Structure formats: C-alpha cells, structure tokens
C-alpha cells in the first residue's frame, strides 16, 4: 500500500483517527494519534514531530525534536479502538531530514540494504515462533519494605487443591503440549487472536497450547522479509496482549515467568533467497543444506556469545537459558534436534522451505535489532567461510542432555548471564558495523542501557535471599 492508497482507504473506510507508531531502543512501541481529517500528503512527506527525549535510548532533552516518517505499507485498521483508527508504523528521522542512527527499524532497513550490496542474496526471510503465557492475575512489587511477585492461572497445576468450584483438568508441569479441551481452556481466545491477526494482514499458520503449565501458548505466522517480519511481530504482540485483556487475562512474553517449568522462547527461522531462487538448499548435503547455509550457521554460532546480548537482552532471559527445560544453551547445530541452538527442520523439506532455526532467542529482544544482528552474523560467516563443522559446532544428532559429562565438556555453551553476553558484545561487534548497519554509538548505548538494568536487579533484595540467609 502506498501513500495514495492509504489516503483513499481513510476516506473509503470512514477512518476517524490515524495512529502513528514508533519503537524505542528496548523494543517497546509508542504512538501519537491524529484526527483523520488532519492527515494528508504532507503528513507522509514531512512526518509527525515528537519528543525523542521521552523514549528509552533516544536523545537527551536538550536535542529532543524528532520526526516520525510513516511507512504506508504498514497500515492496518486497529480492532481494539472504539473510534475507527488506522495504525501506521514509522521510521525515525532527525529534524534535518537524515535518518536517526538509533532507530531500530532504520537499522533493520540498513541490514536489508547491506545484504543486497554484498551481492550474496537479494532477500533475507525471517519467521519467529514467539511463545507467551496467559495468566488470570499478576501482582508484583519491588521496594524498600518488600519485594514479591505472584501469578495465577486457572490451568495451573498448583491450583489442583484450590477451594471453591474446581473442575480439575489442570496442566501438569511440562505437560501442556497439545492437550485438548477442557484441559486446554484457551482455544477460543487463541482463535480470536488468529482471526484478528489475519484481518490485520498476518498469515497465521497454526496455534496450540505449549509445554508449560499455567497457560503457555504459541501462535505461528508466516515468514516475511526482515523488516516486515519485525513489524509483524510487534503487531502480533499487540493483538495477543489486547485480546487477552478483553477476556480478563494478561499476556506476557517474559522468557521465564514461572519457576520450575519451561520458559518462553522465540525460535527464529531464517533463509536467504536470490530473487525466487532459494540459496539454503542443496540436495544430498547435510539435512539438504547448501554450503552457503552452513557458513551462515557458522557465523551465527561463532558470534553467538555477542549475538545473545541482542537476542536475549534481559536478566530474565538467562533464567530460561539453563539445561533441563528444553532451553537451547548448546552452541551446536543439528537436524531435527531441539536440544541444539540451531535446528535444521527436515520435515516436509522442499528447496524453498530449506532454512535454519536459531532457537536461543526470546521475545524480550527488539526484533529489528535481533533480526538485523542475526543476518549480519550469518553474512559474516558466509564471507569468511566459517564452516561450523570445522569450528567444533557439530553437527550433534543426539539428545545433548543425555550426553556424558565428558562429551558435554566438548560443547560450547551460551553465556550464563546478561553481563557475560554484554562483555562478549564489547569484544566482538565488528561484524555488526559492516556497511554502517549498526554504529559504535548504538552498541555503546545498548550496552549502557542493559548494564543499568543489571544493576537494578542486582541491587534489589530478593525474597529468596530471606529464605537462604535470614537466619544466618
């Protein structure tokens, strides 16, 4: 959809308001709403002014004027606002008309342009599987007189003994994969989410209950090009959260909201194409992958410690990345093996379906930054010929969790903390700077923001510390 089509849609659909959306460095969306009668060609050509000092990771108050430039191709009608509203995603520009270098969406667009400049491929396709929980109640507080969190779900196994009306059919820990109703209580909610996603332009492929107790779910939508997929993921999260709220529930994409059960990941499928020609397929190769695909895998696994600072950028991420909960902490690749960081899907493989699946990321990632960083790591692997087999990254076609201690010792692991990942990013980020996709300023700002989060968590007294140390 172009500018003229959007203006025509505003008129034909009797749109009352237009909502312009931007994303901050952390990955949260923000919006400003303008009456539809005030939106014209000038809005698309000149943009919408806003205060950049109020967004995480953007400018200081002394230099805060910024411009949101609408992308008409992203327009969709908002299903949650009473007045008919059209939502449009924007890129961020400086007042002088130059792109703002910390704009996450701008970084994603630069990554796509860089891909074409390399001559290696024309398009990078991404398909995230973003898992989430639907809770019935969440309470938390952190202050000088106390810290706690409390969640609840009608499906939770801890509610088997709940007094009052209790109909049973609770989901056991690690027992939530694919149960039918009435154990799965959220089918209608997920159906509604999928219907609204389809109406908004996403191509939904499937949905189901996930492994954990207490309402873990997964909805898959079809892959697209890098930036468009990041747009789609933010739209996906927006719809999930608002449908949940409509039904009196709350959705979270936190990687590890529950102690002692599986966390939520964001497995990211990715492939390269040259026009219509898939570049990751070679019949007879390992898992029918081309040498280019193997080099791409090598790049991701080689740079994984640094990459994880962008794909798993929360302290909570590393409560998921521990052995024993299907968490892909092992930096190896394998076909059809979900215990490896990179899995090669082999079911129903066709040339165009040939792809790799990086299973380590989670949905606290800013998708524009995470997808761009994954592409840059993969391209570095191709350019440098980083064959994962020669670098000790596999393939490992056994359940890694069942290996002996000696065998496990030979396998590299993901960083054990956000601080460790940030240290790796400080050492290893030259691959991100290629083509000016990321800048030193963006990387330094990101590291500073994340280190501040680490300090906040580390300096907060934890209820577990009372259990461990109060009586010493």
From TrEMBL:
Residues 13-97 form the GS beta-grasp domain. L-glutamate binds at residues 262-263, 320, 326, 338, 359. Belongs to the glutamine synthetase family. Its EC number is 6.3.1.2. One of its GO terms (cellular component) is membrane. NCBIfam families: GlnA. This is Glutamine synthetase. Residues 104-472 form the GS catalytic domain. SMART domains: Gln-synt_C (SM01230). It is found in: Cytoplasm. The modification O-AMP-tyrosine is found at residue 401. It comes from Brevibacillus aydinogluensis. Oligomer of 12 subunits arranged in the form of two hexagons. It holds the Pfam family Gln-synt_C. ATP binds at residues 205, 221-223, 269-271, 338, 352. SUPFAM superfamilies: Glutamine synthetase, N-terminal domain (SSF54368), Glutamine synthetase/guanido kinase (SSF55931).
